[in-house]
């Protein structure tokens, strides 16, 4: 179990890292908890506690799985029209 001091230091570091990331991206995220979860790997959570990015990773994979086939088929059909004799 992490000590209170190291947990506090970790929370302060995460807060700073989020601010730096947002500044670098030029975008302010509306929900800092989702940003924290999205940038937290499960191995860190195993040692320090908290929520990892796995749930969001699975959601992202599902969304990409729905969007890419539709997008790809439109691109393939357009490509076939452009190259037909």
Structural notes for this entry:
The protein has helices at 4-25, 32-38, 42-48, 54-83. It is mainly α. It is 78% helix and 0% strand. Mean pLDDT is 74; it is low at 1-9. 0% of the residues are buried. The longest helix has 30 residues, at 54-83. The radius of gyration is 20 Å and the shape is elongated. The protein is built from four helices and no strands. It folds into two domains: 1-52; 53-85.
The averaged pLDDT comes out at 74
User: What would you call the shape?
Assistant: elongated
Ends distance: 69 Å
Main beta sheet strand tally, sense and closure: none
The helix/strand order is HHHH
Helix content: over 70%
Using only C-alpha atoms, the radius of gyration works out to 20 Å
What's the number of structural domains?
2
The count of DSSP E runs of length 2 or more, i.e. the number of strands, is 0
- Percent strand equals under 5%
pLDDT < 50 runs, ≥5 residues: 1-9
> SS-based structural class?
mainly alpha
Number of helices: 4
Describe the structure in brief.
The chain has 85 residues and is an all-alpha fold. The protein has four helices and no strands.
Main attributes of the structure:
single chain; mainly alpha; 4 helices; 85 residues; 2 domains; 78% helix
Ordered list of secondary-structure elements with their pairings:
Elements (H helix, E strand, L loop, with lengths): L3 H22 L6 H7 L3 H7 L5 H30 L2
